[in-house]
Amino acid sequence: MRVEFSLQIYSVTMARHIIILVAVFWFATAEASHCSINGLPLVRNISELPQENYGRSGLSHTTIAGSVLHGMKEIEVWLQTFAPGFRTPIHRHSCEEIFIVLKGQGTLYLTPSSHSKYPGNPQEFHIFPNSTFHIPVNDVHQVWNTGEQEDLQVLDVISRPPVKVFMYDDWSMPHTAAKLKFPYYWDEECYQTTSRKDEL
Domain extents for the chain? Predict the structure, then answer.
């Protein structure tokens, strides 16, 4: 009787362990497939790609082709939509960036990189549908949807992915005090610290 009771407890315990292992395996597989870098399909429908705001109300971000998500090595392409009044942080990064405005209007604030200790007063540039602008390496900038009614939607291309962003509290903050955000919000979940070898 005692052996039979012990076997029942053992069986229940084993069943629980198996269920836990299956659940862990299932979650790990689901996570791995989300963060897979097996490349990109040749043709995709952008409207079917996932969009996230990453805890930033007013932002909708889609990584169309990315370093961390898709294994891209030289460039990364994002589709971003800013609600009226939304703005990016004041920031810089050690990569080139090109924007193409698909819809809406806004303002680009930009201070060319210089040898000063802080960004200083930015230049203002009006951006509008079918306009494009280029952000040179390490130029401090901010994009702002200054419209009151319409979303600002941009296609954004960066070099040297994944992006390392230095953020500023304001335009007078010293460069040495800028806060590094790496991996950036949309790369956090899938970024692996293992070194990547260049295949060239």
Answer: 1-35, 46-199
**Token digits of residue 76:** 């990364």
First to last CA, the chain: 69
Which residues, in sequence order, are bridge partners of residue 129? none
Q: How many other CB atoms sit within 10 Å of the CB of residue 141?
A: 24
- Consult the annotation and say whether 141 binds a ligand: yes
Residue-wise pLDDT tens digits, 98-136: 999 999 999 999 998 767 899 999 999 999 999 999 999
Q: Is 97 annotated as a binding residue?
A: yes
β 140-144/106-111 pair status: antiparallel
| Structure tokens, 117 | 């200790």
pTM of structure: 0.74
The rounded distance, in Å, linking the Cα atoms of 182 and 162 is 9
91 marked among binding-site residues: yes
Per-residue pLDDT for 139 more than 70?
Answer: yes
State the maximum Cα–Cα separation within the chain, in Å, rounded to a whole number: 85
* Short-list 116, 111, 96, 106, CA closest to 158: 96
Q: Is 17 annotated as a binding residue?
A: no
CATH match of 46-199 with 2.60.120.10: yes
155 and 138 in contact (C-beta within 8 Å)?
A: no
